[in-house]
Amino acid sequence: MAQGIPDEVLMNTALIKDLADVAKDAALLQGVLMRAQETLVSYAPFTLFPTPVPKAVFLQALAVQTHYNTLVDRISQDSEFLQEALASTIEVDDFTARLFRIHQQILKEGRSQSIVLGLNRSDFMLDQKDGQAASLKQIEINTIAASFGGLSSQTPDLHRLVLKVAGRLEESRRILNNNPAAGLAGGIAKAWELYGSERAVIMFLVEENQRNIFDHRYVENELWKRNIRTIRRRFEDVSKTGTLDDNKNLFVDGQEVAVVYFRNGYMPQNYMSEQSWDTRLLMERSRAVKCPDISTHLAGTKKVQQVLARPGVLERFFPGQPQVVEQIRATFAGLYTLDMGPEGDTTVEMALAEPDKFVLKPQREGGGNNIYGSEICQVLEGMKDSTERMAYILMDKIHPRPVQNYLLRQDAPLKVSNCLSELGVFGAYVRQGKEMVMNECVGHLLRTKSSEHSDGGVAAGVAVLDNPLLI
Ligand SMILES: Nc1ncnc2c1ncn2[C@@H]1O[C@H](COP(=O)(O)OP(=O)(O)OP(=O)(O)O)[C@@H](O)[C@H]1O
Ligand SMILES: [Mg+2]
């Protein structure tokens, strides 16, 4: 008993304080459930059946992932390369320019943390031109907020059940196990352990409207299983209560943060005010492990992807490793610069002559930003002589073979659709100083959409969750 207060009251006071986050989450969940009837909650959309995927290309995608991890990590350490690769883009693209300024600032001040945690997802489609064998081509690599590791850990059981109900026991046994949530959490846990403070928490930096919260939850739960505390905060929350101590340790609401896991901050709209940008800088400056740090974020831009496809560039990152270079390069589609000059002019001519062969991409994430077909001509005609074009890259359009399936989503009638699929592969790595202490491929994601749509992911309401059935 302290000062006449019974111990059990003191204990409760401590618990209530410690569990403030739990209570907040419970209230949130309660609110969500109450509003469920108003359809504020809907199930994650999925295909009724798994989609056949050739085994050889599936294994090829898994096998190249650890090399992609290494590549992203090496790019992030090569400030000269990033500067050169992004020079034209940052002249005209405000968002990339702002990220780049933070990167420069951190380089000037010196990085305060030698632990690097990378969780990425490399996306592929199968190019299946008539009569030819399927060829695996990378669409892009997401180095920030790569999503659906949580939900795709749940979909194998879903399709197993559907197939059993449909009397297809043999196929149901062939649905692969998949648990990216555990693998991603494994990476976070490793970084947390190396950070070396048992009290410190993992902070999920989340959006204003948390539409994909359940995807995060599976990763959070994997961390709780390991007795690692997680909290969820928005830019605004960190802006209000985030501070750095003399050693640049990051504290939010008085709790030391070991790892900031960005599930937000990848598009301009995520930075709702100048304060959000200040907050990003605060976190970058801190001793917390950032996933991703600013240079790893920049390594995932589409401009970097295009520069990597130029002759000789991969060799810079894998000197004396021609097999690795070959393995990565085999997955590259044609990528073309739109910088000012003769090379960019050729790209413009090529795109205007056969727009259906290409995709025009700005430096954006989140789906729905790419330009296709006749719209490529409209957009390029308007900017072909202006530096504005440097904000884009041009890419060969990949043509997967359509497969029929039912797409189940809350707001759409059930009908058979011609569908195209995209395979994502999750990578997790941790580096401490010069030593890679973890480098793994931690699972996959298959997303499928109706072939009527050129663009758009699950969050954009176009693609749905799926599983590969290896053939
Ligand atoms: N070269 C291509 N050929 C065919 N389709 C493509 C190509 N590039 C992109 N797409 C389609 O457009 C979608 C979005 O493309 P991309 O991944 O480059 O953009 P994003 O905005 O970064 O998307 P995400 O939110 O998935 O990160 C892809 O999921 C794919 O369906
Ligand atoms: Mg992306």
TrEMBL record:
Sites where the protein binds ATP: 140, 302, 361-370, 372, 395-398, 422, 449, 455
Cofactor comment text: Binds 1 Mg(2+) ion per subunit.
Gene Ontology annotations for the cellular component aspect, listed alphabetically: cytosol
Binding residues for Mg(2+): 140, 142, 365
Stored Gene3D superfamilies: 3.30.1490.50, 3.30.1490.80, ATP-grasp fold, B domain (3.30.470.20), Glutathione synthase, substrate-binding domain superfamily, eukaryotic (3.40.50.1760), Glutathione Synthetase, Chain A, domain 3 (1.10.1080.10)
InterPro entries in the cross-refs: Glutathione_synthase, Glutathione_synthase_a-hlx, Glutathione_synthase_C_euk, Glutathione_synthase_N_euk, GSH-S_sub-bd_sf, GSH_synth_subst-bd, PreATP-grasp_dom_sf
The Glutathione synthase substrate-binding domain, residue ranges: 200-299
Binding site for substrate: 121, 144-147, 210-212, 263-266, 447, 458-459
Pathway assignment: Sulfur metabolism; glutathione biosynthesis; glutathione from L-cysteine and L-glutamate: step 2/2
Cofactor(s) named in the record: Mg(2+)
EC number: 6.3.2.3
Recorded GO MF terms: ATP binding; glutathione binding; glutathione synthase activity; magnesium ion binding
Keyword terms of this UniProt record: ATP-binding, Glutathione biosynthesis, Ligase, Magnesium, Metal-binding, Nucleotide-binding
Catalytic activity, as annotated: gamma-L-glutamyl-L-cysteine + glycine + ATP = glutathione + ADP + phosphate + H(+); gamma-L-glutamyl-(2S)-2-aminobutanoate + glycine + ATP = ophthalmate + ADP + phosphate + H(+)
Highest taxon above the source species: Eukaryota
Family classification: Belongs to the eukaryotic GSH synthase family.
NCBIfam families membership: glut_syn_euk (TIGR01986)
Main function: Catalyzes the production of glutathione from gamma-glutamylcysteine and glycine in an ATP-dependent manner. Glutathione (gamma-glutamylcysteinylglycine, GSH) is the most abundant intracellular thiol in living aerobic cells and is required for numerous processes including the protection of cells against oxidative damage, amino acid transport, the detoxification of foreign compounds, the maintenance of protein sulfhydryl groups in a reduced state and acts as a cofactor for a number of enzymes. Participates in ophthalmate biosynthesis in hepatocytes.
PANTHER family documented for this protein: GLUTATHIONE SYNTHETASE (PTHR11130:SF0)
Subunit structure: Homodimer.
Annotated protein name in UniProt: Glutathione synthetase
Biological source species: Amphiprion ocellaris
The organism's taxonomic lineage, starting at the top: Eukaryota, Metazoa, Chordata, Craniata, Vertebrata
